[in-house]
Amino acid sequence: MVGQIVGYQTAYEIWQALERSYAANSRSRLIELLTELQSLKNDGIYADEYVFKKKTIAYKLASIGDPISNADQLIYLFQGLGPKYNTFVIILEARPEQPSIEEVHSLLLTYDARLQRQNSSEQLSLPQAHLASLPTPKEQQHPNSFNFKPQNQKPNFT
């Protein structure tokens, strides 16, 4: 910091130099945080972690003097959700009153858990359906079972 004020004579000149220096840093930090907020996607991370990251960026923006409204936070949050959350987003956007970020966070966790349960039950049902179509070991071991026909033999009806 001393290097930034060398050569200035008055407190006013020093203050102006520091203000210019930190203003440039603040502006670049603002752009960096806004870009991060806009580009953060829910790809491959749980909803809880996703919302936490979005909220952390919003807190950082507030700490540098550029807070984001609840409405804008929701826009950024919804923007980063994937297509599997379209129904969730449409329902919340259709509400007459705008939900809080905390309410959306809670609902998103519930919705995400529901999607995970459905996906795991679908994955279980496919192998189960396949197993149901396979012959049982009993049918495979007994050649005299109902469906057994010896090859190259004609039935004897005498």
Notable features of this structure?
158 residues; mainly alpha; 68% helix; 0% strand; Retrovirus-related Pol polyprotein from transposon TNT 1-94
Protein model, in words:
The protein is mainly α and 158 residues long. The chain has a domain at 29-126. Helices cover 68% and strands 0% of the residues. Helix 2 runs antiparallel to helix 3. The longest helix has 33 residues, at 101-133. The termini are far apart. The model has no long low-confidence stretch (mean pLDDT 80).
Summarize the structure.
With 158 residues, the chain is mainly α. 68% of the residues lie in helices and 0% in strands.
**Helix share, percent:** 55-70%
- What is the helix tally? 7
> Which runs of at least 5 residues are low in confidence (pLDDT < 50)?
none
Terminus-to-terminus distance: 112 Å
Strand pairing plus helix content: what structural class?
mainly alpha
Measured by DSSP, the beta-strand proportion falls in under 5%
- Report the sheet with the most strands, covering strand number, pairing sense and barrel closure: none
Order of helices and strands: HHHHHHH
Number of strands: 0
- The shape is elongated
The overall pLDDT average reads: 80
Radius of gyration: 32 Å
Which secondary structure elements does this structure contain, and how are they paired or packed?
Blueprint lengths: L1 H4 L5 H29 L7 H17 L6 H11 L5 H8 L7 H33 L3 H5 L17
